[in-house]
Design a protein that fits this description.
Layout lengths: L1 H16 L11 E3 L4 E4 L5 H14 L2 H6 L13 H6 L16 H17 L4 E6 L3 H9 L15 E2 L5 H8 L8 H13 L3 E2 L5 E3 L3 E3 L27 E3 L5 E3 L16 E2 L7 E2 L3 E6 L2
Parallel strand pairs: 8-11
Antiparallel strand pairs: 1-2, 2-12, 3-12, 4-5, 6-7, 8-9, 9-10
């Protein structure tokens, strides 16, 4: 049974690091120019578990332990459930990996470079973190960021909130607020039928904020891809650049305007709202 689980694990993670020898482009990427590609999605828990699996097998337990995410980041946002289960629980497999350092992200890029390059006959794939300008180019998707600060022509979508969900949100509101009044205000807000589509903090009047308050599925259909076909460049988790302490795109923990393409998110340590995606330079082997 353990062997079957391992085989299944390798099969479902294969697309990120493996491809046929005829394939010239890096797997799971979109082209930015003739030799530079960027991941369609953020690196997910599933991909990180694959990385840990190979580290343990090829480099030993010490190397694997050094690559483990810092799960205590969830305690800083008051989430004990994800603190215990976020990385390994099957329901979070395709959610972005968080709680990692810049150094850990860079080591992952180096490992992925070696794995993918070794499986091809004539190409070298060099994965790394994007520069800030590369990330901005991908997020803008050829749009003018002065006119489209998020890289989307339309950033609003329909609002859908059930009575059960509204009661859950009401619990976050000051207890002095009457539920009947709250519900009326909420219904009036919903009738506008517009809400920003990104997985970020949503504003509801002055006394309340609502949203998912957590990362979401890396292919979440509620948040459409940008014009390049890239998912979650804005929101979900902020994404590291190669510049230490500088991330881009905002997150579920940030307000919408913090995720504008031209703005920077500053970080000092691993966070529950911080992840990354890779860019890849392709060269021909000598």
């Amino acid at each position: 049974m353990r062997l079957l689980r391992t085989i299944f694990f390798c099969l479902i993670t294969w697309p990120l690091v493996a491809q046929s020898v005829e394939q010239e482009n890096p797997p799971n990427t979109i082209s930015l120019d003739s030799h530079l590609y960027i991941d369609k999605t953020e690196i997910a828990n599933l991909h990180w578990l694959e990385y840990l699996h190979y580290l343990a097998k090829d480099s030993g337990q010490a190397a694997m332990q050094s690559a483990l995410p810092d799960t205590t980041v969830w305690l800083t946002v008051g989430d004990t459930l994800r603190y215990q289960h976020y990385l390994r629980y099957p329901g979070y497999r395709y959610f972005p990996v968080v709680g990692i350092t810049l150094s850990q992200a860079r080591h992952y890029c180096a490992w992925r470079s070696a794995i993918v390059s070794a499986r091809l006959t004539d190409k070298i794939f060099q994965y790394r973190l994007p520069t800030e300008s590369e990330w901005m180019k991908a997020a803008a998707a050829s749009l003018d960021v002065q006119q489209y600060p998020f890289g989307y022509q339309e950033i609003y979508g329909p609002i859908s909130l059930s009575k059960r969900k509204s009661r859950e949100y009401f619990k976050k509101v000051n207890s002095e607020v009457d539920y009947t009044v709250f519900r009326q205000d909420l219904l009036a807000y919903i009738k506008n039928k517009q809400e920003i589509v990104f997985n970020v903090i949503k504003n509801f009047k002055d006394y309340f904020q609502y949203g998912d308050y957590a990362p979401s599925y890396i292919f979440d259909k509620r948040t459409p891809a940008n014009l390049l076909g890239l998912h979650h460049m804005i929101g979900n988790v902020a994404e590291m650049t190669d510049q230490p302490g500088i991330a881009k795109g905002g997150s579920w923990f940030h307000y919408p305007d913090e995720g504008e393409i031209t703005k920077q998110i500053v970080y000092f340590k691993p966070e529950a709202w911080l992840g990354f995606r890779c860019v890849c330079e392709v060269a021909t082997k000598n």
